TrEMBL record:
Organism of derivation: Promicromonospora aerolata
Protein name according to UniProt: Ornithine cyclodeaminase family protein
InterPro entries, sorted: NAD(P)-bd_dom_sf, ODC_Mu_crystall, ODC_N
Pfam families for this protein: OCD_Mu_crystall
UniProt xrefs under SUPFAM superfamilies: NAD(P)-binding Rossmann-fold domains (SSF51735)
Domain of life per record: Bacteria
Lineage: Bacteria, Bacillati, Actinomycetota, Actinomycetes, Micrococcales
Protein backbone atom coordinates (compact mmCIF):
# COMPACT_ATOMS: atom_id res chain seq x y z
CA UNK A 1 0.00 0.00 0.00
CA UNK A 2 1.42 3.40 -1.00
CA UNK A 3 2.12 6.06 1.59
CA UNK A 4 -0.55 8.73 2.04
CA UNK A 5 -0.14 12.00 0.21
CA UNK A 6 0.76 14.86 2.54
CA UNK A 7 -0.77 18.10 1.30
CA UNK A 8 0.49 21.20 3.05
CA UNK A 9 -1.30 24.54 3.18
CA UNK A 10 0.21 25.85 -0.04
CA UNK A 11 -0.68 22.67 -1.90
CA UNK A 12 -4.28 22.73 -0.64
CA UNK A 13 -4.69 26.35 -1.73
CA UNK A 14 -3.06 25.80 -5.14
CA UNK A 15 -4.91 22.57 -5.92
CA UNK A 16 -8.44 23.90 -5.47
CA UNK A 17 -9.23 27.55 -6.29
CA UNK A 18 -12.14 29.02 -4.31
CA UNK A 19 -14.57 28.85 -7.24
CA UNK A 20 -13.84 25.13 -7.60
CA UNK A 21 -14.59 24.59 -3.90
CA UNK A 22 -17.93 26.38 -4.35
CA UNK A 23 -18.68 24.13 -7.32
CA UNK A 24 -17.80 21.01 -5.30
CA UNK A 25 -20.16 21.97 -2.44
CA UNK A 26 -22.94 22.80 -4.90
CA UNK A 27 -22.51 19.56 -6.85
CA UNK A 28 -22.55 17.42 -3.70
CA UNK A 29 -25.83 18.94 -2.54
CA UNK A 30 -27.36 18.65 -6.01
CA UNK A 31 -26.36 14.95 -6.12
CA UNK A 32 -28.43 14.38 -2.98
CA UNK A 33 -25.99 14.67 -0.08
CA UNK A 34 -28.10 15.33 3.00
CA UNK A 35 -26.36 17.36 5.74
CA UNK A 36 -28.98 16.15 8.24
CA UNK A 37 -27.45 12.66 8.28
CA UNK A 38 -23.88 13.87 8.80
CA UNK A 39 -22.03 12.57 11.83
CA UNK A 40 -22.08 15.09 14.71
CA UNK A 41 -18.85 16.76 15.68
CA UNK A 42 -17.53 16.67 19.21
CA UNK A 43 -16.00 19.50 21.19
CA UNK A 44 -13.60 18.35 23.91
CA UNK A 45 -12.58 21.01 26.48
CA UNK A 46 -8.87 21.61 27.01
CA UNK A 47 -7.04 23.90 29.40
CA UNK A 48 -6.05 26.22 26.55
CA UNK A 49 -9.22 25.86 24.48
CA UNK A 50 -10.80 22.83 22.87
CA UNK A 51 -10.47 19.96 20.45
CA UNK A 52 -12.99 19.81 17.61
CA UNK A 53 -13.36 16.28 16.23
CA UNK A 54 -15.22 16.30 12.92
CA UNK A 55 -15.83 12.89 11.28
CA UNK A 56 -17.89 12.35 8.13
CA UNK A 57 -18.87 9.44 5.92
CA UNK A 58 -20.55 11.75 3.41
CA UNK A 59 -23.89 10.05 3.89
CA UNK A 60 -22.69 7.19 1.69
CA UNK A 61 -22.47 9.34 -1.44
CA UNK A 62 -18.70 9.85 -1.63
CA UNK A 63 -15.74 7.58 -2.31
CA UNK A 64 -13.89 8.66 0.82
CA UNK A 65 -14.54 9.19 4.52
CA UNK A 66 -12.59 11.56 6.70
CA UNK A 67 -12.03 13.28 9.99
CA UNK A 68 -10.64 16.66 10.93
CA UNK A 69 -8.91 17.10 14.24
CA UNK A 70 -8.88 20.82 14.96
CA UNK A 71 -7.91 22.87 17.98
CA UNK A 72 -9.34 26.23 19.04
CA UNK A 73 -7.01 28.30 21.22
CA UNK A 74 -8.60 31.68 22.00
CA UNK A 75 -5.36 33.14 23.39
CA UNK A 76 -3.30 32.36 20.31
CA UNK A 77 -3.90 35.57 18.31
CA UNK A 78 -2.25 37.57 21.09
CA UNK A 79 0.77 35.30 20.63
CA UNK A 80 0.83 35.85 16.91
CA UNK A 81 -0.48 32.32 16.31
CA UNK A 82 -3.63 31.05 14.58
CA UNK A 83 -6.74 30.69 16.74
CA UNK A 84 -7.72 27.51 14.88
CA UNK A 85 -5.28 24.80 13.77
CA UNK A 86 -5.68 21.21 12.65
CA UNK A 87 -5.12 18.32 10.27
CA UNK A 88 -7.48 16.34 8.06
CA UNK A 89 -7.29 12.59 7.42
CA UNK A 90 -8.89 11.45 4.16
CA UNK A 91 -9.51 7.70 3.98
CA UNK A 92 -10.73 5.28 1.33
CA UNK A 93 -14.39 4.55 2.09
CA UNK A 94 -14.07 0.80 1.40
CA UNK A 95 -10.75 -0.09 3.02
CA UNK A 96 -10.50 2.78 5.53
CA UNK A 97 -6.87 3.18 4.56
CA UNK A 98 -5.46 6.70 4.86
CA UNK A 99 -5.18 8.22 1.38
CA UNK A 100 -4.08 11.75 2.25
CA UNK A 101 -3.31 14.08 5.14
CA UNK A 102 -4.28 17.70 4.47
CA UNK A 103 -3.47 20.86 6.33
CA UNK A 104 -6.68 21.32 8.32
CA UNK A 105 -6.42 25.09 8.69
CA UNK A 106 -6.06 25.59 4.95
CA UNK A 107 -8.95 23.22 4.31
CA UNK A 108 -11.18 25.11 6.77
CA UNK A 109 -10.18 28.44 5.23
CA UNK A 110 -11.16 27.08 1.81
CA UNK A 111 -14.39 25.26 2.62
CA UNK A 112 -16.07 27.76 4.96
CA UNK A 113 -16.43 30.56 2.39
CA UNK A 114 -17.22 27.96 -0.28
CA UNK A 115 -20.29 26.90 1.72
CA UNK A 116 -21.28 30.53 2.27
CA UNK A 117 -21.02 31.47 -1.37
CA UNK A 118 -22.75 28.30 -2.56
CA UNK A 119 -25.69 29.25 -0.33
CA UNK A 120 -26.06 32.82 -1.57
CA UNK A 121 -24.78 32.62 -5.14
CA UNK A 122 -28.24 32.24 -6.66
CA UNK A 123 -29.39 35.45 -4.96
CA UNK A 124 -26.28 37.32 -6.06
CA UNK A 125 -26.53 36.21 -9.67
CA UNK A 126 -30.15 37.36 -9.85
CA UNK A 127 -28.90 40.96 -10.01
CA UNK A 128 -26.48 42.73 -12.30
CA UNK A 129 -25.41 45.96 -10.59
CA UNK A 130 -21.89 46.01 -9.11
CA UNK A 131 -21.90 44.70 -5.54
CA UNK A 132 -20.86 46.60 -2.46
CA UNK A 133 -19.40 44.27 0.18
CA UNK A 134 -18.89 44.92 3.89
CA UNK A 135 -16.70 42.46 5.79
CA UNK A 136 -16.58 42.46 9.59
CA UNK A 137 -13.30 40.94 10.74
CA UNK A 138 -9.69 40.69 9.65
CA UNK A 139 -8.82 37.01 10.03
CA UNK A 140 -8.50 34.23 7.45
CA UNK A 141 -12.26 33.91 6.99
CA UNK A 142 -12.67 37.62 6.27
CA UNK A 143 -10.01 37.36 3.57
CA UNK A 144 -11.29 34.01 2.33
CA UNK A 145 -14.85 35.20 1.86
CA UNK A 146 -13.76 38.15 -0.28
CA UNK A 147 -11.55 35.91 -2.42
CA UNK A 148 -14.30 33.31 -2.81
CA UNK A 149 -16.92 35.88 -3.73
CA UNK A 150 -14.56 37.31 -6.33
CA UNK A 151 -13.73 33.88 -7.74
CA UNK A 152 -17.31 32.63 -7.93
CA UNK A 153 -18.63 35.88 -9.42
CA UNK A 154 -15.80 36.40 -11.93
CA UNK A 155 -17.23 37.20 -15.35
CA UNK A 156 -20.77 37.15 -13.97
CA UNK A 157 -21.08 40.09 -11.57
CA UNK A 158 -18.64 42.76 -10.53
CA UNK A 159 -17.63 43.65 -6.99
CA UNK A 160 -17.60 47.44 -6.89
CA UNK A 161 -16.11 47.93 -3.43
CA UNK A 162 -15.10 46.19 -0.21
CA UNK A 163 -15.29 47.88 3.20
CA UNK A 164 -13.53 46.11 6.05
CA UNK A 165 -15.06 46.91 9.44
CA UNK A 166 -12.86 46.12 12.44
CA UNK A 167 -12.64 47.00 16.12
CA UNK A 168 -9.00 48.12 15.93
CA UNK A 169 -7.77 49.26 12.48
CA UNK A 170 -4.19 49.43 13.76
CA UNK A 171 -4.17 45.68 14.39
CA UNK A 172 -6.21 44.57 11.39
CA UNK A 173 -4.81 42.42 8.63
CA UNK A 174 -6.14 44.56 5.80
CA UNK A 175 -7.85 42.94 2.84
CA UNK A 176 -6.20 44.16 -0.34
CA UNK A 177 -8.02 47.15 -1.78
CA UNK A 178 -10.52 47.36 1.06
CA UNK A 179 -11.28 50.53 2.97
CA UNK A 180 -10.55 49.76 6.65
CA UNK A 181 -13.08 51.40 8.98
CA UNK A 182 -13.48 51.23 12.74
CA UNK A 183 -16.62 49.31 13.70
CA UNK A 184 -19.28 51.37 15.47
CA UNK A 185 -18.39 54.66 13.79
CA UNK A 186 -20.67 56.65 11.43
CA UNK A 187 -18.49 55.54 8.50
CA UNK A 188 -19.02 51.89 9.42
CA UNK A 189 -22.76 52.44 9.72
CA UNK A 190 -22.77 54.04 6.26
CA UNK A 191 -20.90 51.04 4.83
CA UNK A 192 -23.47 48.65 6.32
CA UNK A 193 -26.39 50.70 4.97
CA UNK A 194 -24.90 50.62 1.48
CA UNK A 195 -23.82 46.97 1.51
CA UNK A 196 -25.34 44.39 -0.80
CA UNK A 197 -23.34 41.67 0.97
CA UNK A 198 -22.33 41.66 4.64
CA UNK A 199 -19.90 39.02 5.92
CA UNK A 200 -19.51 38.57 9.68
CA UNK A 201 -16.32 36.65 10.48
CA UNK A 202 -15.43 37.67 14.02
CA UNK A 203 -15.08 36.15 17.48
CA UNK A 204 -17.80 38.47 18.86
CA UNK A 205 -20.23 37.13 21.41
CA UNK A 206 -22.74 39.99 21.12
CA UNK A 207 -24.42 41.54 18.05
CA UNK A 208 -22.08 43.66 15.99
CA UNK A 209 -24.50 46.22 14.54
CA UNK A 210 -28.02 47.62 14.58
CA UNK A 211 -30.38 45.54 12.47
CA UNK A 212 -31.90 48.69 10.99
CA UNK A 213 -28.68 49.35 9.08
CA UNK A 214 -29.19 46.29 6.86
CA UNK A 215 -31.11 46.79 3.61
CA UNK A 216 -34.10 44.56 2.84
CA UNK A 217 -32.31 43.30 -0.29
CA UNK A 218 -29.00 42.54 1.44
CA UNK A 219 -27.30 39.17 1.86
CA UNK A 220 -25.76 38.59 5.30
CA UNK A 221 -23.38 35.71 6.00
CA UNK A 222 -22.39 34.91 9.61
CA UNK A 223 -19.60 32.39 10.19
CA UNK A 224 -17.79 33.62 13.28
CA UNK A 225 -19.37 31.60 16.09
CA UNK A 226 -20.18 27.93 16.66
CA UNK A 227 -21.42 28.19 20.23
CA UNK A 228 -25.08 28.39 21.30
CA UNK A 229 -24.48 31.38 23.59
CA UNK A 230 -22.53 33.59 21.15
CA UNK A 231 -23.86 35.59 18.23
CA UNK A 232 -22.78 38.22 15.71
CA UNK A 233 -26.25 39.13 14.43
CA UNK A 234 -29.06 41.00 16.19
CA UNK A 235 -32.28 39.06 16.68
CA UNK A 236 -34.20 41.86 14.97
CA UNK A 237 -32.41 41.07 11.70
CA UNK A 238 -33.32 37.38 11.93
CA UNK A 239 -36.94 38.40 12.56
CA UNK A 240 -37.29 40.08 9.17
CA UNK A 241 -34.96 37.86 7.14
CA UNK A 242 -35.08 34.48 5.48
CA UNK A 243 -32.66 32.53 7.69
CA UNK A 244 -30.77 29.70 5.99
CA UNK A 245 -28.73 27.13 7.95
CA UNK A 246 -26.64 24.13 6.96
CA UNK A 247 -28.99 21.84 8.90
CA UNK A 248 -31.70 22.65 11.43
CA UNK A 249 -30.44 20.19 14.02
CA UNK A 250 -26.85 21.43 13.84
CA UNK A 251 -27.99 25.06 14.00
CA UNK A 252 -30.14 24.43 17.07
CA UNK A 253 -27.17 22.80 18.81
CA UNK A 254 -24.44 25.25 17.89
CA UNK A 255 -25.61 28.44 16.14
CA UNK A 256 -26.01 31.12 18.79
CA UNK A 257 -27.33 33.58 16.20
CA UNK A 258 -30.27 31.19 15.72
CA UNK A 259 -30.61 29.79 19.24
CA UNK A 260 -30.66 33.21 20.89
CA UNK A 261 -32.99 34.73 18.28
CA UNK A 262 -35.45 31.90 18.99
CA UNK A 263 -35.09 32.50 22.73
CA UNK A 264 -35.82 36.19 22.12
CA UNK A 265 -39.02 35.30 20.26
CA UNK A 266 -37.71 36.79 17.01
CA UNK A 267 -37.45 33.49 15.14
CA UNK A 268 -39.07 30.05 15.15
CA UNK A 269 -37.42 26.70 14.54
CA UNK A 270 -39.78 26.03 11.64
CA UNK A 271 -38.64 29.27 9.96
CA UNK A 272 -35.13 27.90 9.38
CA UNK A 273 -34.46 26.99 5.74
CA UNK A 274 -31.96 24.17 5.03
CA UNK A 275 -29.02 25.10 2.82
CA UNK A 276 -29.66 22.14 0.53
CA UNK A 277 -33.14 23.43 -0.32
CA UNK A 278 -31.75 26.81 -1.39
CA UNK A 279 -28.85 25.39 -3.41
CA UNK A 280 -31.08 22.93 -5.28
CA UNK A 281 -33.81 25.51 -5.88
CA UNK A 282 -36.44 23.69 -3.82
CA UNK A 283 -36.85 26.95 -1.86
CA UNK A 284 -36.49 30.39 -3.41
CA UNK A 285 -36.04 33.04 -0.69
CA UNK A 286 -38.13 36.18 -0.99
CA UNK A 287 -35.94 38.79 -2.77
CA UNK A 288 -37.68 41.57 -0.83
CA UNK A 289 -36.38 40.29 2.51
CA UNK A 290 -32.77 40.09 3.75
CA UNK A 291 -31.18 36.70 3.20
CA UNK A 292 -29.24 35.55 6.27
CA UNK A 293 -26.99 32.49 6.00
CA UNK A 294 -25.73 31.26 9.37
CA UNK A 295 -23.13 28.49 9.31
CA UNK A 296 -21.20 26.76 12.08
CA UNK A 297 -19.18 24.35 9.94
CA UNK A 298 -20.13 20.72 9.39
CA UNK A 299 -18.01 17.65 8.79
CA UNK A 300 -19.43 16.82 5.35
CA UNK A 301 -18.13 20.14 4.02
CA UNK A 302 -14.53 19.25 4.86
CA UNK A 303 -14.93 15.84 3.23
CA UNK A 304 -16.42 17.23 0.01
CA UNK A 305 -13.72 19.86 -0.41
CA UNK A 306 -10.93 17.47 0.64
CA UNK A 307 -12.02 15.12 -2.15
CA UNK A 308 -11.91 18.02 -4.59
CA UNK A 309 -8.42 19.01 -3.40
CA UNK A 310 -7.17 15.43 -3.73
CA UNK A 311 -8.58 15.00 -7.25
CA UNK A 312 -6.80 18.15 -8.42
CA UNK A 313 -3.57 17.53 -6.50
CA UNK A 314 -3.19 14.17 -8.19
Amino acid sequence: MSAPLVLDAATVAAACPPADAVAAITAALERGLDPAVDLPRQAVPLAAGQFLLMPSDGGGGLTHVGIKVATVAPANPARGLPRIQGSYLLLDAATLGVVAVLDGTALTTLRTPAVSVAGVLGRLLAGSAPLRVAVLGSGPQAHGHVATLAGALAGRREIASVAQLVRDPARAAAIGGAAVVRLGTPAADDALRAADVVVCATSAREPLFDARLIADTAVVVAVGSHEPDARELPAELCARATVVVEDRGAALREAGDVVLAIADGALREQDLVPLRDVVTGAVRPDPARPLVLKTTGMSWEDLVVAEAVLARAR
